[in-house]
Amino acid sequence: MTPSLFSNLKSLFEKKSRREAIEGYLLIAAGTSVILFFSIFVMLYAFYLSFFSWDFLTPMKFVGVENYVKVFEEIWDGICGGSPFRTQFFIGIKNVLFYTAIVVPTQTILAIILAVFANQKIKGISFYKVSYFLPSVTCSVIIALIFVWLFQKEGLINYFLSSMIPGFAPNWMRDVHYALWAIMLVAIWGTSGNLMISFLAALQALPQEVYEAASIDGAGRFKKFFYITLPLLKPMIGYSVVVGTIGCLQMFDLAYAMPGPGFSTTTVVQNIYNTCFAESKVGLACAKSFFLFAVIFAITYAMRRKFRYETT
After folding, report:
1. In the prediction, which pLDDT does 9 show?
2. Is 62 helix (H, G, I), strand (E, B) or coil?
């Protein structure tokens, strides 16, 4: 009788677990379908289109790797100093690499500093946290349009700059030397708050016993920060750098809403957008997209290996 009872209970639990599994799959079916269609299927279809010549109107024509050859020819022409009108993709790569090299380390360092201040127990710290986090949840296009007005030659930013540096009042969005820098400042201001929350959570999760032991040994605040806090934050720093790099290499919204003169603010994604929807070269745009994917994958893979090696 006992074996029969155990077998009945086992059968009951198996049926219950099977029913729970079916219910779980049904609950995630809608979200999974959306992800499969709008990410996996779209990515595979874009890779398929990269081997065709298509302008949305005429039938698709198979061209093999011709689109990829055109991408590398455009890059090579840019390296050799070709006309900017024929090397916009190469100019976008240069701009976005420079943009990434400035924005990612600056926003990461600023986020760490803000998180350290936000971690202090002082009056009004909640308002401080909200005020720095608010730009990260505001529409980037709205922020860009506001800063276009602020960056005017007679705008508010130049008003304060000219009071500190007499005679310095550049026409930010009309000068090829300053347009991209203006976009960088907006990006740093808008993203540091989001990273600050991540670093704040990491700081509050650090073991306090280490700091107590350091205090007993006579370590000051700066020694604690450089010899305890920063080393313990390395995993979060690595995560922030990788995520920031991916976002910067795909930057589009700020460059589209804050255009500079000529090709001074052209980015890779912006050139892909123009190639597809302005020039109606869908296959070439898809080839450029997968070239950008390969660049992002290579850079992020190398960075992840580096940070993983340093943290082990």
Report:
1. 46
2. strand
